[in-house]
Amino acid sequence: MDMFNKVTAFLQQALETREPSINLLDSFVNHWKAITNYYIETTDESRPVKQTDIPWCLRQMLDILVYEEKQQGEETGPCMEYLLQHKLLETLCTLGKAQYPPGMSQQVMMFFSKVLSQIQKPVLHLINVYRPVQKLINLCGLPDSKTETEESQFLFAVCTRVRKDPYVLNYILEITKDSQKRCSSTSDEALEEGCSGASSPERAPSPPSPSSSAASSCSARSGAHPSSSPQTATGIIPVLMHLGKSQKSRVALRSMESLLLLVSLPQEDTGHLLAEGTPLCHLLAQRLTELYCLIPSSLSPADIHSYSGAQWRDHFTQDSPEESQSFPGSENLQGFFCFLDYCNELTKEAPRVLGVKMARAIHLQWLKGVIQPHLLQMSEAGILVHTALLSCSVRHIHSPALLEELVQFLLGSDTHCEKQQDTQTHILRYRLIEHCNHISDEISITTLRLFEELLQKPSKSILTNLVLRNLEKRSYRLPGSGVMDERHGVESDVLEESEELEEDPFFTDMYEDSGFGSQEPLLSLPSARERHNPRAHTQVADIVNSFLCLVPQEAKTSHLVQGAGYDTYVHDAHKLLKECIALSRDWNWPDSVKTTETHPATDFYEGHFLQILFDRIARILEQPYELNLQVTSVLSRLAVFPHPHLHEYLLDPYISLSPGARSLFSTLVRVIGELMQRIQHIHNVTDKLMMIRRQLMGLEEETLLDHVTLLKGVIVLEEFCKELAAIAFVKLPIEEQ
Asked: For bias kind Low complexity, which ranges apply (predicted)?
């Protein structure tokens, strides 16, 4: 820029003082003739262009054009007229293609780049500008190119110009009716077949790279078939995608930024043009699939889950992954997730029509074409690593369009109540939920993590599909078991269940033997008379203490350890509730439970997801500690969502359940019954529980003990009940307002 200012000042001075009669056009033409004369007079074909006067002449011509534009204002100056009428850019393009003298193509691209970036008037719509620009674009991205840096700068200048004048996009894309039809049919065929992308158009025939070989292998494993497509492709989109794979980080970064400039043009017609007239969607999905297939299948799920992610630009500015994220295969993992982040940004910034089509291509080529076959395979090792990768992918997907396709892929779009015998409506959904109950504990834990990640995404469809559609009619309640609460205008259970619980010897003994009355409770238990008041029986104290009193006193140990009380969960529950309220604010959930109509008793089915979770929680005393933690984590997240039916079903201990129905509380009551029988056969159970708790807290070294799985299960059960009590505590005041 300093050089330009100096030259401009020199020309200004020459015009005004030293040579008032200077003719810019003559000077411009002379510089051009100096370039053409070189080709007439010189016989040394090996002399590099930098050793000639050509670079200097091109710089002088550029400076004259820029200076002339400033002097002429709105009118086109004679030098620009000369450049257009005599097709100077066309000639330069031909000279650059010939690479004579050696290095000429770099000089031509630099000249084009500066003309497009420094000339302020719109010029790309002029035929004698956009035609040579098109030709120069098609000279970029060739195999073994030595000019990638100049190519990326030139393409960035083109895209920046298009960003400034969006109407010229059609000139740059070279779209005709025939080419648009061919692109559309090729893309549609590839998408319909769920192709993993190994057969998409390439810039030119070249030896297969490790990336394409891996993608081809991945395609074969997924059962994808190559789609028919041209062997070569031209145009700015394939060129940018090709340069985005460059080993030179600056070239790749500049190319991806250029593509983002085009994709983020806000006009819907430009979005439609890019979606239907170019192979953008197909090439984008192909690249994502290639990078996914480069991830080693030997990666540890723990390493995958520990990956914190990075923004796509960081991939090109960091020499290597952070030390904390460095492990065998970490570079491949980072490469994939950085490009996934790039896809996030593209689909978010693009016009809706383009964003939706890009997301759809990624769904069919990557999710359906590659991931689904791996999730449905029989190999436990394959299921494990690809479930972990999918879980990490869910965590890093933020684009609404991509998220919508992801949910459609994993869960489908069914909103009707589930039927217990229906296992084929959406086979992937069914198998994933079954994997939560897999014989391999590691697969179960990893799949539960996947669903926990899903429950943190801003999609109403996830909760509706997994849980809410089965609670809509509230058929888990005993018909006729509710009366109208005048204060809320909703149903409140009548007294039968409270009376039954008080008269049940097990329930009574559990309260008496727990010794809860000897402690200082957070909330006082209501009296029997208070329970007979429909307005009071759902008060905070009633529900909170129902969960706190579930575990018998001899099985409790948290009160013996400092800082392990119930109140430690209240802060976390309040924070989680705020997150869930913010997440669901625009989902138009009802504020109160739906009034149930009188209807004949129907079999209630909680749905496949809750069924598996309840089955898992029912076996909490028999399962590994890590698995129990993950099951309770998913259930806690479900319980904190502020939907009245979900709250009633998971957190109200006093609803009268219909025959055959179970709730979270009733499942826990059965677990407590089993617990009380089993701990009777363990000598010094409280001391052993205390030892296990201290070991889990890292206060003591682990030692071999009998019944260790049972004892750890008891500790998780106690903590889970405290967590549910805390969730009920922070939620109910909001609902009672």
From this structure: 211-224
